[in-house]
Amino acid sequence: MAVNFKQLAEQYRSALFSDVIPFWLNNSPDREHGGYLTSLDRDGKVYDTDKFMWLQGRQVWTFSMLYNRHEKSRAWLDMAALGVRFLKQHGRGEDGNWFFSLTRSGEPLVQPYNIFSDCFAAMGFSQYALAAGDEESKSIALQTFRNIVRRQVNPKGRYSKAGSAARATQSLVMPMIMSNLAFELRWMLPSDEFEAILDDSVHKVMSLCLDKSRNVLFETVAPDGTHLDTFDGRLISPGHGIEAAWFMMDIGQHRHDRALIDQAVTIALSTLEYGWDQEYGGILYFRDAVGKPLERLDWDQKLWWVHLETLQALLMGYRLTGRKECLDWFQKVHAWAWAHFADPSHGEWFGYLNRRGEVLLDCKGGKWKGCFHVPRALFRCLRELEQLAKEYLL
Q: HEC states along 188-246?
């Protein structure tokens, strides 16, 4: 049966612009202190007022991105500006590193131990600088990016728990996020620096972290790419692997590198096959590469972002290669995700399900879930579906 891409596009468009974006516009702005309140219950009511810098930066990015790429909505630009003002005033320490969390009014709660606060601040300020023509935001984005480049070999710095004799490792997380961050800041980076970052990311993701015998990405490997027989060394995160795969597809598109695209699509499909729960459906949060007990006790949960990253990777893979497996898997993941995560009666998507697909936490935002993965994936899926509808006239 033919897939109706036009009808699917309308489903994603409606969910994004009539449900998800209004949910955050109506419930998250902190009109008293600035920034966003992201700990929202099922109905959008605030249940905690602490502010997490990586979620603040992500929300600035979301509304700035929609303003830049979809519609010049004043409400969206104002929403982004609310976060930018708060972050400029309170978000960084004297050393330029971004705090992990603040009180509602902006007093530091948790020091800058996590480089991801910096990564999403750079993304947010870059998109806002484009949207508002704000030179100060452009400068902050570039300063933050330079700081990330300097810190990426030791992301936690003095806050790291690793001992002096800790084993050397190569993680998947940093090169994958650097590849995406480079595209976000491409407009302000010298072309040779931009391409060098992509080269480094492709090497680390596709040569070191990739297990070529299984076509899956390991979260942590030795510096030469060999496997470590440890909890971390055996860990597979299907969501990260599939997200990294579409980041690699982005690079392949940019470079007109069909071999890289084909390899990235194969990784996405193999990882999905590996992570799919054959008993209950949905994608497992973590797996051990050789079936040993996992350190992560939440390994069998089903998380919103994992499924959303998968949906956009499959559509992108199908558009770029026409591989039928991508479309078949998209239909399967789409049906499961929309049946279990979407909450049309209260708005937005649930984030945390148990293995059977039942809601574990009915909140819509918190310390880790904010206004990012759902709107980003819906928007990217919408764009992919619109293009597929034109190509296939469906």
A: HCCHHHHHHHHHHHHHHHHHHHEECCCCEECCEECCCCCCCCCCHHHEECHHHHHHHHH
Nearest-angstrom CA–CA distance, 309 and 101: 26
Quick one: 104 and 220 in the same domain? no
- Whether residues 244 and 128 share a domain: the answer is no
In a domain, 161, yes or no: no
Q: What is the mean pLDDT of residues 257-266?
A: 98
Phi, psi of 29 (to 5 degrees): -65, 135
CATH number of the domain to which 303 belongs: 1.50.10.10
Looking at beta carbons, which pairs linking 251-257 to residues 24 or more positions away fall under 8 Å?
A: 251/179, 251/198, 251/201, 251/202, 252/320, 253/320, 254/183, 254/198, 255/198
Same domain, residue pair 38 and 2: no
Per-residue pLDDT tens over the stretch 151-170: 887 766 665 656 656 789 99
Q: Which domain holds residue 261?
A: 1-28+170-394
Interacting residues of 148 by C-beta distance below 8 A, sequence separation 6+: 115, 118, 119, 122, 178, 181
Indicate if the pLDDT at residue 377 is higher than 60: yes
Residue spans of alpha helices (H) in the chain: 5-15, 21-27, 53-69, 74-90, 115-132, 135-151, 173-184, 191-203, 238-255, 258-275, 304-321, 324-340, 373-392
Q: Region 250-263: what's the mean pLDDT?
A: 98
